[in-house]
């Protein structure tokens, strides 16, 4: 028996719980691209991509933190330079938009772009134009990263953008549903603590692990 508050033994269990609620049979008749929105979400995305026999990729992004609090994320910048800002926090901390955009530009040019170049070996994110995109993560602490990824997929011409999440704060549901075509989730909580609180096993996954996994997939697809 797992302790109170733990909903998933590990990411594999979370992935199969998601498969149970996804319209898998209908989706198998359509052309989908499955995209993880974080390194940690990649194992969940891979299981679902395998179930759908769909192409798998990951959308790289970086968090922008408050200048007064290095643990408080105030914005996200994705690999296509899409920036999503947590407007309430920016106003609460009296942070200027000039700071946010200059910081996002610095992070993109000095961290994210080089990471993307190494990860993709000069290639771009898989072509999303006129495709059905399913964005997946292991859970959401806030909706910032997911919102940035949704907007990126839309701007890249996706036909539809859906989101599948094992667990998320109730407060994030309306935010995501406001721009995503569909949202699928196993559990929502009014008083959300943090993603790792709800998993029995949840090891951090590194960039290098994902890079090796992607290279393996590329070799197998040749």
**First-last Cα distance:** 44 Å
Low-confidence stretches: none
Q: Supply Rg.
A: 17 Å
What amount of the residues lies in strands?
15-25%
- The average pLDDT is 92
| DSSP strand tally | 8
Helical fraction = 40-55%
Supply the helix-strand structural class: alpha/beta
Quaternary structure of the protein: single chain
Number of helices: 8
Q: What would you call the shape?
A: globular
Instruction: Report the major sheet.
Output: 5 strands, parallel
Order of helices and strands: HHEHEEEEHHEHEHEH
Side by side, the strands of the main sheet go 2-1-6-7-8
Describe, in short, the structure shown.
This protein is α/β, with parallel strands linked by helices and 222 residues long. Helices cover 41% and strands 23% of the residues. The chain is built from eight helices and eight strands; from the N terminus they run ααβαββββααβαβαβα.
Description:
The chain is of the alpha/beta class and 222 residues long. Helices cover 41% and strands 23% of the residues. It contains eight helices and eight strands; from the N terminus they run H-H-E-H-E-E-E-E-H-H-E-H-E-H-E-H. It has helices at 11-21, 24-28, 42-52, 87-92, 97-120, 144-155, 170-177, 207-220; strands spanning 32-36, 55-58, 61-66, 69-78, 83-85, 132-136, 160-169, 182-189. The strands form two sheets. The protein has a five-stranded parallel sheet with strand order 2-1-6-7-8. The radius of gyration is 17 Å and the shape is globular. The mean pLDDT is 92.
């Amino acid at each position: 028996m797992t302790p109170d508050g733990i909903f998933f033994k590990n990411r594999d269990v979370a992935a199969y719980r998601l498969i149970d609620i996804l319209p898998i049979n209908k989706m198998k008749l359509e052309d989908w691209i499955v995209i993880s929105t974080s390194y940690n979400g990649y194992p969940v995305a891979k299981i679902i991509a395998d179930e759908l026999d769909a192409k798998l990729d990951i959308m790289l992004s970086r968090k922008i933190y408050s200048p007064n609090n290095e643990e408080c994320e105030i914005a996200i910048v994705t690999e296509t330079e899409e920036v999503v800002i947590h407007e309430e926090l920016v106003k609460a901390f009296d942070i200027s938009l000039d700071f946010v955009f200059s910081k996002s530009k610095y992070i993109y040019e000095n961290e994210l772009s080089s990471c993307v170049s190494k990860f993709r070996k000069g290639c771009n994110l898989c072509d999303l134009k006129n495709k059905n995109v399913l964005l997946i993560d292991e859970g959401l602490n806030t909706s910032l990263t997911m919102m940035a990824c949704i907007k990126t997929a839309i701007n890249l011409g996706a036909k539809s953008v859906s989101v599948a999440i094992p667990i998320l704060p109730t407060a994030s549901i309306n935010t995501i549903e406001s721009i995503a075509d569909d949202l699928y989730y196993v559990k929502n909580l009014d008083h959300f603590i943090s993603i790792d609180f709800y998993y029995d096993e949840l090891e951090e996954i590194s960039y290098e692990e994902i890079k090796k996994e992607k290279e393996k997939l590329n070799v197998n697809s040749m």
